[in-house]
Specification:
Elements (H helix, E strand, L loop, with lengths): L1 E12 L12 E13 L10 H15 L2 E5 L3 H9 L4 E4 L5 H17 L6 E11 L2 E8 L2
Parallel strand pairs: 1-3, 3-4
Antiparallel strand pairs: 1-2, 2-5, 5-6
Helix pairs in contact: 1-3
Amino acid sequence: MKISKEFRWEMGHRLPFHEGLCKNIHGHSYYLVVEVEGELNENGMVIVFYDLSKAVKPIIDEFDHAFMCWENDKEVKNFLEKLNMKRVIVNYHSTVENICNDFTSRISGELNKIQGSKFISVTVRISETPNSSAEKTVFFS
């Protein structure tokens, strides 16, 4: 059985290596779908939606209305620090693919902490625009 829950957040970023418009400071209204596949528990549920939200919401709260900055983007990093802006400094370029990798790792780690669960996989799909997204599936052992 598969269940899913949707989340949204706003975040700014830039891709300093990019040769097009994405080298500029800009932002997106990100849309996240977390799909959990697993066996039904004694109550007929894969996971309680509240528990899924508890696993994902702190991640969303960290990134919501923040600027994601690659740790080696010194000019923007210094600017954000000088103005004391909400920021998330990461060791990767803020492509939707890298963000999806990061979120998948974090979410699967949180789901692993839920005792008695019989999860098969978790799929994380992040859209940065209505027609641009990345998706990753991790299988539990």
